[in-house]
Request: fold
Amino acid sequence: MSSINTKINRIASFFGVTAIILGAFGAHALKEKLSIEQLATFETGVKYQMYHALFLLFLGLQITFNEKYKKIIFYSISFGVLFFSGSIYLLATGELLGLELKFLGPITPIGGLFLIVGWSYYFLNFIKKKN
Reply:
């Protein structure tokens, strides 16, 4: 397995396990402490993290992908998860933590943009192969 595939699979596994831990934490420990809206927001972060953990796992198993695109996809998705889900977790729990974190609001769409870039390069890999 190539170095990039190993790195992708490690991060995919990390994102997967932390999504499960955070999902369980949200469902049990935060259920009584957050509002319904805050809990739904937190769960959105967990869902997107898990979706992209699975996406990275799938990417790490691809052997015919353009290596340059694979690296771009990996870094885009990784930063996307950190910015998108990470900011959502903090925004949803900021009040509980006693912290004013509204300044993180613009980080969420930046994370979303990274996710879009990653998926776009995934798509481009197939367009280039066809030609």
The chain has four helices and no strands. The radius of gyration is 16 Å. The domain at 3-130 is CATH 1.20.120 (Four Helix Bundle (Hemerythrin (Met), subunit A)). The longest helix spans residues 67-97.
